[in-house]
Design a protein that fits this description.
Helices cover 7% and strands 43% of the residues. It has 1 helix and 9 strands, in the order E-E-E-E-E-E-H-E-E-E.
């Protein structure tokens, strides 16, 4: 008699990799959305989003972030641990958006987010490089 066993193994994350476990967004704060991007602020500048309705992120209970990136749609995994956050990698459709689009700026900044904070109806995502993305409901 032969016994065949199948199983799963946990992959240990290498330094710099993120292992995603179920981490739902708190429904009373970041989980309510969608969040519309209005600006990114750095110590020396402020970038204002000219059309927040086409740059949005929604944090779903299954740890999926759903994105509207100008003329494209995308999604990626997110992980929250306290007020730390990691978003990505983000996959999106690849339509060519009109001139002046901020699609690559929005998507790349989201993937650099490392902390979050909600005050009233504003979500602040702190990113690597001392910038803050400001998003509103």
């Amino acid at each position: 008699m032969a016994v065949i066993a199948y199983g799963c193994a946990k992959k240990n994350s290498a330094p710099g990799e993120h292992a995603f476990h179920a981490s739902t967004a708190p429904a009373d704060t970041i989980g309510r959305g969608p969040w519309r991007w209005i600006a990114t602020v750095t110590p020396s500048s402020r970038t204002v989003c000219t059309n927040p309705d086409v740059y949005t992120i929604t944090f779903l209970p299954d740890s999926t972030a759903r994105l509207l990136i100008d003329c494209n749609r995308g999604s990626g995994r997110y992980h929250i641990d306290g007020h730390s956050i990691h978003i990505g990698p983000v996959a999106s459709t690849r339509m060519m958006c009109p001139p002046g689009s901020m699609d690559t700026t929005f998507a790349s900044q989201l993937q650099r987010a490392n902390a979050w904070h909600v005050e009233t109806d504003t979500l602040q995502l702190d990113t690597v490089g001392e910038s803050q993305m400001l998003l509103v409901r």
